[in-house]
Amino acid sequence: MPSSSLRNTLLTALTALVFGFLGAAIWSYAGLADNHTRAFLLSNPDVLPQMVEAYENREAEKRLAAMGDEVFTPFPGVVLGNPQGKKVLVEFTDYNCPYCAASLKDVNRLIAEDPELKVVIREWPIFEGSDAASRMALAAGLQGKYRAFHDAMFELGDVSAAAEKAGLDMAQAEADAASDTVAAEVARNLELARSLGFTGTPAWVAGKRPFGGAVGYDKLKDAIAEAGEG
Q1: Prediction pTM value
Q2: Please, where are the H alpha helices in the chain?
Q3: What is the domain partition of the chain in residue ranges?
Q4: What pLDDT, on a 0 to 100 scale, did the predictor assign at position 229?
Q5: CA dist., res. 85 & res. 220, Å (int)
Q6: Could you give the CA distance from residue 60 to residue 192 in angstroms, rounded to a whole number?
Q7: Pairwise CA distance, residues 96 & 158, whole Å
Q8: For residue 96, how far is the Cα from the chain centroid?
Q9: Phi/psi at 94 (5° precision)
Q10: Which sign does the torsion angle of CA 102, 107, 112, 114 carry?
């Protein structure tokens, strides 16, 4: 069993991680880090990860607020649902991500149920071999055929086949996919994702809240509803 000194050190380190060093100092100075508090935390170690998660979520919300409307502003044409919809869900996605593929049915269901829903897609190619698909998807957006390519890409898993099914002008699409404009959008999405603390796809933003994972239809619907109430 760790000594009392070691326990105090661990507690201080964890507190500093959650609240920052200044917060830890204030917490200790106020007498809150007493023996009863230490005993509670040692008996309930699951509280600390929850505190860390809450802190990280709060910081992500602050960074999102500092971005203004940037994360909600789509690349031309890269929107699902109603482009003028008043309810907005942002999705960071990768075509080689199985969890993104699994989430597609949830997103399509939400769109079908709510004519006011606008889903802004942020192409974030983090899996090997995904960059070409993301670039072609953005090129499809410039031709007004993003939805067709998006669905076909998840269905077929091949860029050329998806582009053909979506009916793209291939000469124009290939030129756009290789353009600086598209490259800048991919880089911007990477920076946005990193700034929000996302570590994988799918990742989402609804209202003031960023969150990650294949959370399912119910949680996405609840997040959109909460955003509308905020």
Answers
A1: 0.75
A2: 4-29, 35-43, 47-67, 98-113, 131-142, 146-156, 159-166, 170-177, 180-195, 217-229
A3: 4-45, 70-229
A4: 58
A5: 16
A6: 11
A7: 10
A8: 16
A9: -140, 130
A10: positive
Phi, psi dihedral angles at 96 (to 5 degrees): -100, 10
Q: How many residues does the chain have?
A: 230
Superfamily of domain 70-229: Glutaredoxin (3.40.30.10)
Tokens representing 202 are 């799918």
Query: Which residues make beta-bridge pairs with 179?
Result: none
Q: CB pairs under 8 A, 24+ apart, for 207-214? A: 208/61, 208/64, 208/65, 209/57, 209/61, 209/64, 210/60, 210/61, 210/64, 211/57, 213/99, 214/99, 214/100, 214/102, 214/103
User: Tens-of-pLDDT digits for all 230 residues of the chain?
Assistant: 444 454 455 455 555 554 454 444 444 444 445 566 667 667 777 766 666 556 556 666 666 666 668 999 999 999 999 999 999 999 999 999 999 999 999 999 999 999 999 999 999 999 999 999 999 999 999 999 999 999 999 999 999 999 999 999 999 999 999 999 999 999 999 999 998 989 999 999 998 889 999 999 999 999 999 987 54
**Spatial strand order in the sheet of 87-93:** 79-81, 117-123, 87-93, 203-206, 209-212
- Provide the residue type at 185 as one letter: E
Tokens at 18, concatenated: 């959650």
Taking Cα atoms as reference points, which of 110, 52, 118 lies closest to residue 88? 118
Q: Are strands 87-93 and 79-81 parallel, antiparallel or unpaired?
A: unpaired
Token pair of 217 as six digits: 């239809």
